[in-house]
Amino acid sequence: MIKKVYKDKFDKFINKAIFVLAFLFSALWLFNTVRSDNFAIDKVFSKNGGYIFIAALIIMTVAYLKRSELKKWGITSIEFLTNHLFALFGIMVFFQIIILLFASGLAGYDIWGLYHHAVGDLNIEKSPYLQMYPNNFLLFLLMKAVHSLTALQILNIIAIDFSIIISFFTARTLFGKRAARYSTLIFMATLGFTPWLLNTYSDTFVLPFVALDMFFLSKWDQKNTEPLHRFTYLLAAGFSSAVAYYLKPSAIIFVIAYFLLSALKCTKIKTLLIPLAVFFIGALLFAAPLKVYVNHQTIVHFDKDKEFPSTHFMMLGLSKNGMYNKADVNLTRSAKTAKEKKQVNIEVIKQRLKKLGVVGYVQFLYGKYYKNTHDGTYAWGADGGGRTGFMVKPNLNDSEKLSPFIHSKFGEFLRSFIYTDDNGPGYQNGENTFVYRFFSQIIYIIMVLGILLSTLKEKYDFKIMWLLLAMIGLMMFLLLFEGGRSRYLIQAIPVFTLLSGYGYSTVPYLKEKMLNLPGKREKEHVKS
Q1: Do residues 411 and 405 lie in contact, with contact meaning Cβ atoms separated by under 8 Å?
Q2: What is the percentage of the chain residues whose pLDDT exceeds 90?
Q3: DSSP annotation of 323
Q4: Residue 143: exposure state from Cβ atoms within 10 A (0-12, 13-18, ≥19)
Q5: What is the pTM of this model?
Q6: Is 437:424 a contact under the CB 8 Å cutoff?
Q7: What distance in Å separates the CA atoms of residue 297 and residue 124, rounded to the nearest whole number?
Q8: Of the residues 46, 331, 376, 488, which has the maximum number of CB atoms within 10 A of its CB?
Q9: What is the pLDDT of residues 395-406, one digit of tens each?
Q10: What is the pLDDT of residue 25?
């Protein structure tokens, strides 16, 4: 009896801690989105920037004067969109095809190097890239097998769209049809209707495996699920987790959150160990053959002494901007062995922590959290410059089939909203990319507001607590390790949109709770 009392108190403490942390992270996140540079139209010295500002003033004025009608219109519009998701999905696919036809090009930074190594333009044997970052080997193999930028971008469209579909079913399983419709609408708005399909990197290619994993984990412990199906769901969850891990290791944080919360909640160790064992068997079904292949392939000679350890990424996380920088990379490369690399990294980490001090470190984390979360375009155009810049004209797709579209007048016009070539002082990366940034930021704010709302209904339900813990886990990971830009949030969009959709589905409950506050009831009684 005493043991049960302590267990109940411990559970209540864990529940409260998760909700409090999730509220703090999401509230600060929302604050960061509002003060983002994507709203700094005054920095865009272009007539188009002025037009956006004037249009925004007119819209806000009309919205204020017609606020009661606007509220009804907003509710009607949302209901219309959520009731016609299938048609909206079709429009999204059409939008993606237009982007592919008229704006296809090779993204810069890691993608540029990986792709040119994969298709044989650069000699992979002479490059240390995959030896330093072996986590990108699976993506390299995909690029090598596909051997076409156009085909890779088509696969990227499939990856994004498949993730949206699977996330709908996951949300419906966890929170019902209403939340599923909201979360799907937000997913399409924040990623589907964007040019991220052109960015053929692990950020988006990992999404279907994250979405599948969440779906399988949400289904296996349903009361009406048959034992054989439970076993299959767990195996499939393990398999998709392994694929996600080898594409982007941090993408399995939500899996860790799931089993960590399960461990904290379980009363019998057997109820945790058996599902965990089945899950790991599923993971081994992918990981073991891949390991055998890696050990016997002759494409890349992997060397443990050249591989960058996790301490390197923690060192990057403590650099001035908390992100990639050449000085830290060169320092780690200069160390000859794996042991020396770790020692050098740890020494620098200690020096930086000592220099910052406790208060300075807290201030540093605050600044880094802003960099990690403020940008609603997920840091579009923030990686690289010059020929290996993010999306620049020298890297247009050289496909003969796409050439008439890409080199058309409309293609040039469309790319002015997407490509990040330097167009002189005053332009935010590209001539009209500020338009994309402005509207993306508004959608992003809507998503983050929904996440904040999901923390206000303290429902001690495993499903919502799992997703909140996953969000907390990723945010803490990005604070400790390499971050500094919101691109790293893309891997968790299935988590964020589920939380946001659930948050908006609780609005009637929150509204009712606000109306029934003790103070309000007393005032209404006095009036009557």
Answers
A1: yes
A2: 59
A3: S
A4: buried
A5: 0.91
A6: no
A7: 13
A8: 376
A9: 888 888 999 999
A10: 97
